[in-house]
Amino acid sequence: MPRLFTALEIPPEIAARLAFFRGGLSGARWIEPEDYHVTLRFFGDIDGRTAQALDDDLFAANDLPSGATTLRLDLVEIGVFGGQQPRALIARIKPCAALSRLHATHEAIARRNGLAPETRKFTPHVTLARLRGVEPQMVGYWLSNRAFPLALSFDAPRFALYSARDSVGGGPYHIEAVYPFA
Description:
Blueprint: E1 3-9, H1 12-19, E2 29-30, E3 37-45, H2 48-60, E4 71-81, E5 88-93, H3 97-112, E6 125-130, H4 136-144, E7 152-156, E8 158-164, E9 173-180
Antiparallel strand pairs: 1-3, 1-8, 2-6, 4-5, 4-7, 5-6, 8-9
């Protein structure tokens, strides 16, 4: 069974700018720049019939408000998930109504196809590194040296259905299908 999720791709020039932050934090497991993405909805391990139904529904749900053909994303800062026990370094994306609606559409598609509701709040981001076992003080020090606005933006012309290898977090990921915004 493939492990599937939908996401927005990160253009190579933006990935190269984010890759600048790699390194300098012992124990961090850095994500490869070609695997950077903005997850919209994680579906998990899916059987073939459900995967086909998801593909059909995603194809039918590729429109943006006002007939737009791209979705503007603004990366605003480097941050961390996990609070006192940091688990990931991220590039935060400025929330916007169109991105929230796209996420809500993918959530509705997941539920319509029998998947459990997502319990975590949608926080748009790009994961840069996983931090299992990295000392919180070291993460704080690393972040303090990178506490400046990112001011990176790009227009996403589509979203994609990705697959991930079983039991391997952080890639490599494979694009199974793409859905240009109508």
